[in-house]
Amino acid sequence: MEDNRKMSRRSMLKSAALMAGAACVGTLAPRNRALAQQKASKTAMNYQDKPNGAMKCGNCVQFEPPASCKVVEGTISPEGYCIAWVKKA
Predict the structure, then answer these.
(1) 7-18: buried (b, 16+ CB within 10 Å) or exposed (e) per residue?
(2) Model's pTM, two decimal places?
(3) Which pairing describes strands 63-64 and 68-69: parallel, antiparallel, or unpaired?
(4) Considering the domain 39-89 in this protein, what is its CATH number?
């Protein structure tokens, strides 16, 4: 009888180790996908080279001087505008 308990405990520990390893792999996969995301096209974001009133890329949180954006691909004018515009704080 003593041997049956040891086998049971050993099986349980092996299963626990396997689940812990699977959990670690599961947390790494989404991070890799997030890093692989691409920027949206100008067309998809309705980008235009002129401002929409006071809303323009130059005062948007997404804008990266001198002519880039965190969301939209390509060269971006500080005087442009798109639907991803968010006012800088």
Answers:
(1) eeeeeeeeeeee
(2) 0.58
(3) antiparallel
(4) 4.10.490.10
